[in-house]
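[scheduler] slot 2 assigned
[scheduler] job type: sequence-to-structure, two independent chains
[scheduler] chain ordering preserved from manifest
[runner] begin chain α
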Amino acid sequence: MALGETVGLWPGRRGLRGARPGTLAAPPFPDVRELRPLTAPPAQRATVVDLALWTVGAGRDAVPLAVARRAVPGALPDPAGPARPACPGAPLDAARESLRRGRYAEAAASARRALWTGREPERAEALWTGREPERAEALWILAVALWQGPEPASAAVFRLRTLWAEHADGRPAARLVLAGPLAVLHAMREREPEARAALAEARAAAAEVDPAGGAVLLPLLTAEVESLAGRPERSLHLLEEAAQAAAPLGLERLRTAVDRAVVRRRGELYPEGVRRLGDGGWPGETGGPEREVGRGCAAEAVAAAGRAVAEAVATDSPVAQALARLDRAEALRWAGRPQDARREVCLAGLCFARKGHVPGVSRAAARHAALASA
């Protein structure tokens, strides 16, 4: 029996496309140039683009496709904040606002209230009487909140699997917004077969919802899984592939976010190729005025990284806090402050541990060991 069949996650009778029933094998990754058409209904395109933006860490920085969401009756409202003043009594309005502020636990609680409206969660499927767009948005917010928020990865996986059993049958948009975060959460726990099974479901759902948008989203999700699995070169290749697929869609914010993700991943993979601070050498190198330029740029980098840490701490996302602290640790190292850098790495490792992010804990431990030996 395939993993998840006991809760209806990957049923063998209609499970993985291209895989033998009862297995976890994923079909080959498709060539993005084969996915057509480029157009899709606005609400469906918005769902795919929103998930892609969250995958590259730009979900809170942009309001994607706000015009498209309001262009058709019943389209999904804007997840980053309603166009009209929020009604305190509307759970979806509260969930959108909490998601925009990075308060993921509050967003998840409000999304659950929107789904179940005070009824027992176990009877949600039988008692749901709202419209399908609202159901899809509540599931989308809840999935993102479980993925990004403080819920430990193992508990988040369990919640997503139960949501799948209750809401995914016959609803490709629901399957997409649940399977994408589920794949990354499995990768956080170093469960690669389960992660690839979730990617296969996301791929099949994207083909029904928005094939062209899926040509951007699926490489992004797969790149995140590959990165967590310790294959940064493959991850970079997939990010570049997503950038190429985003160009013909005419979505500037998505293309810019993907391009930034490519630059960031290149910097992580080839740190020696990063442009030297101020063109004056790395901090600590001898060289008269050039050394002073390097020091000034290092101080600016430390200050910018400190602001990023403060913004991350204002949210309740352990992973966002951990990544910001790792960036600050690198800036402190460049500035010649190894003890402060080690402290930031330790705090980052504790944040990863709170989430149950196994690759992150290993990465922080290795970084700390390197700093200590230096």
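[runner] end chain α
[runner] begin chain β
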Amino acid sequence: MVTLYLSLLLAGVVFFLLHFIAQARIASLLRERHPSQWKIIAETESGNPSPFGIWMRLQLALRSPILPALEDASITRWRRVWRYCPWGAWLCWFGALGLQWMAR
């Protein structure tokens, strides 16, 4: 029971880490393969934004239908990882909470 509980917690952490790794991988793939689209995300009219500004604009791009329209299989695959990993993490963590509640 303890092993399952710790495994669920660890799996939740791995899912959340994979969510952030997918963002970084999508950004690097966009920089390498689609520099004009990355320029739209990374630069604004007023100059170069802060890292937080780039992250916010990347979040908007990830949520939009623009990335699948690029028809790049690896970007689409990493976008799916980015999209569904938080769901897996929350399921694992709620499962761990359920185990903890049942063990009382």
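[runner] end chain β
[qc] chain β: The two ends are 12 Å apart (CA to CA).
[scheduler] slot 2 released
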